[in-house]
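Deviations from the work plan: none for this task. Representative record:
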Amino acid sequence: MTDYGHELEFGYFLVPEASDPSGVLETARLADRLGYDLLAVQDHPYQPAHLDALALLGAILAQTERIRVFQDVGNLPLRPPAAFAKAAATLDLLSGGRFEAGLGAGGFLDSAQAMGASARTPGQSLEALEEAIVIIRAWWTTAGVLRFHGRHYVLEGARPGPKPAHPIGIWLGAAKPRALALTGRKADGWAAPLMNYLPPAQAAAAQRVIDAAASAAGRDPREIRRIYNVPGAFTANPSAPASDTDQAIIGPPEHWAAVLTHLALDLGFGTFILLGPPNHDLLRTFIVDVAPDVRERVAAGRAHAEPVAATADHSSQ
Amino acid sequence: MRVADEGGLAFVGVQDHPYQHHFFDTWSLIPTLLAETKRISFFTDVASLPLRPPAVMAKAAASLDVLSGGRFELGLGGGARPELIANFGGPRRTPGETVEAIDEAIDVIRLLWSDERSVSFEGKHYRLSDARPGPHPAHPISIWVGAFKPRMIRLVGRKADGWLPSLGVLTREEMRAGNQQIDEAADKAGRDPRSVRRLLNVQGLIGDTSPARSELPVGYLAGEPLAGPAGWWLETIAGFVQDGFDTIVFWPVDPSPGQVELLISEIVPQLPGS
């Protein structure tokens, strides 16, 4: 099994509930105060009950100090890549380097099309995503004029800028083999589907697809951070022993810590995003009771595993 | 900006030129500014339509309005020179198509702010098919159009909530004529011409003497910035009001808070009605 050795990060999946904007902002400030590393906001512009994710993230960054944010994940069909790159760089600059770029080909192509997005097959959407990654990266790094002639996007000679405050990671939302392979080839991170859609056993299979594609492209699979969106609840006792077919984590903090440690050491996840109602106790328990415990257990597990890794390196020479 | 907020000004306009590499993204900057102010409203001056899908613009505008308790208005324009838009990946449109696109975008945006459960629109440039509106803005957001040529100006009279030209791009005579064309187009469309707000971007400097032109930073308005002491500004503004304008958007060529302080202390209290 795989551990990519990433420093662990813990986040909260903040629902951009349009009916309660002040509650949403309050939860964001709470997560910041409690010491979360990340806030994840889903981006479904066609969902009428949601606030626009980028507008909300702008408001959140202005009202928080340390926490980083990303769209989990950004809807490419409705966000032209150059404008998105510029928005990301702006939010990153205004926040002192606290924006990461979650991006996906768009899971609900019909809904995006209803809002006016170009009609694309799943294959074309993926092609467009690959082009967008090239444009967005170039936007953040090109000093002169940027020209791009793709099948889906054409820039006839843009002057990119401003530059972001830190190297923004592009984290792709991917579920199917072609998207996973693209993640392995090009992305800085994989924002895996929710655990209820992709239980650990299937996530492990997906990791192998990403790793194979990364290796084939001459990349080290460890370059790609693995992000898991984890629903669950805290209860006095685990509902059942943990299994890799679980769709959620339900149990006391120690049970959570044991499961997340397994997901980190054996499945390679480095970032855990908590899904659950925005109440203080839930947010607090996860970050104050579970997160430090997982960090400790993973550090111990890695210390124990190191000699094994060295042996493996040695034997492969 | 904080000075403007505390000094009781009504609006801050933020220009939108995504292809200007040294500018922030306007739609990302405004949420920050809203979070750092309490009373003042912000508007895009003006949002470049070809570079963002209007449905997403509607959603972003409504979200900013909801998040700020009703402090966002939408300035909308057809975009700068076609080559700048194309450089950035936007569609290359003729002037006629630009007017059409704004016309359609106003419908699309209003549909997405509406109370309907589901909306459809079949335009030449934009389409909606059973899109679901929401969230609803916290207050009725106005759409003010940056219009400089007769066709677009007539469109303002027909369906926009306001006209938002810039001094210097239009001569004073053209501005007067524009207001008249808007009145006529509004009448023809069965609207009260008074329901169309008339805003004017005025680039300038408040001071005792006019600085030499070479000392001024380069702005994006074509004309020479206005410069003069407070009394001169009062007369000038009275002239704009006579020409039909009701909202003056002052663009200080000197971006320090001092100019905004002068505007608040020396000019605004002396205006009729204040």
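Chain A is about 45% helix and 20% strand.
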